[in-house]
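Standup, Tuesday
Yesterday: got the pipeline producing structure tokens again.
Today: sanity-check two examples.
Blockers: none.

Example 1:
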Amino acid sequence: MSLDKVKALTFDTGGTILDWHTGFSTAMADVGAKHGIEKDWGSLANEMRRKSLGRMLRLGENEPPTYNFDDSHRMSLDEVCAANGLDAFSEEERRTIWWDRAHNLQCWPDFPDTLPKLRSKYICASFTILSFRIIIDTARKNGLSWDAVISCEAIGKYKILPEAYAGCAKFLQLDPSECLMVACHNFDLDAAKAAGYITAFVRRPDEWGPEGPPDPEPNPQHDIIVDTFPELAEAVGAA
């Protein structure tokens, strides 16, 4: 596998870069504590994630999207609250979870110091199904300097539709073969590879908390498989 043609690294951001599980589970726990409610907040955060992700994947396949990931977070949290006896959570309190916390998620600690090294050699873009505003706010929160933010919100076709990957490459004015997709999810990388991208799997074993990721083992077809972002930098010659 040669990286000679690669000019851009395109990063999945929710999960691969941002620790949504800790963010949402602690935000839920904070609101629950105000009401004297105890739940398995980690499991509820994962359920919210499953629901919100399910709303977004392939969005735009049959008709133009009418909502973004912020809306998906809000709708999914409402469903989790309704199903788990959390009617006491007010609209304002729910907003502290689906908006305030989502826009202030911490990134994994091995990424911030590695990003400048990667940017010294490649265009580094957040290519995400998250909203533009989530990426803007979390970049400011974590001191991340992306060369570009490409949300499927602008493409109108969401991962894992092939049009999403084609649209990202088009915005970068690159051929898909000049793009290296970086993610911790096989479904994203498999779709990227089918669209002509080079692919890199970076393990994030804590993405789903103690439950563990639903698809932890990388498909062997991926061009690069590493455990950490510093290892990714070494693999692409940017250490």
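Example 2:
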Amino acid sequence: MTAAESRPFHHGDLRQALLAEAARLVEAQGAEAFSLREAARAVGVSPAAAYRHFEDKGALLAALASEGFVRLAAAMEIAMDEAGADPVGRLRANGLAYIRFGLGEPAMFALMFGPFGAGGQYAIGGVGPRTGLSAYELLCRALDDLVKAGRITPARRAGAETLLWTSVHGLATLANARVLHGPAEEAFEGMFGMLREALGMERAAKPGGKAAAAVPQMPDLFAGIGD
């Protein structure tokens, strides 16, 4: 038994310390490569003390993934607020915030949607501090606001959250894998223009309303691959 393992528990906020250490280990080694015992040792407490807060490593990583979903929702809230009242701009800001989060925190992003996150056995949650809504609910609200503003029809709205979510998630995943040609945000702008067309945002705009901005062209995302 090591000195850390035999040391009595005297940590002020052990749960948060373990989460912070888990975040460091995930960033450095990946979610699969460490144990709860290792995290406990790193913060200077016994494994028994760590088990009072988390039943196993999976529970620790699920809690960390939930923190990631809180941060993602918070980033979306800020971006949508900064975009103002225009519902198209708010939807664009929602998607761009998702892309930026995925690229800015690739290890956390992978954890959130991996076997220890949303794809695992533990309950995963996380809502934004301003609205109390999850990232998914914020996306749905942005789409609902487009219907209320007459920018898309109810028929086009049905299932649109899946189209938007898979599009931005796939783009962030490909960007983190370094297989995109050019900046991810440039690719997003082209993709968002295509999504606007697919959802009929321009055709559903009210007569006499503000003219829609030109739809950006989708860049060749995979140029150079296999050359």
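Quick observation on example 2: The two ends are 55 Å apart (CA to CA). The chain has two domains: 13-51, 67-199.
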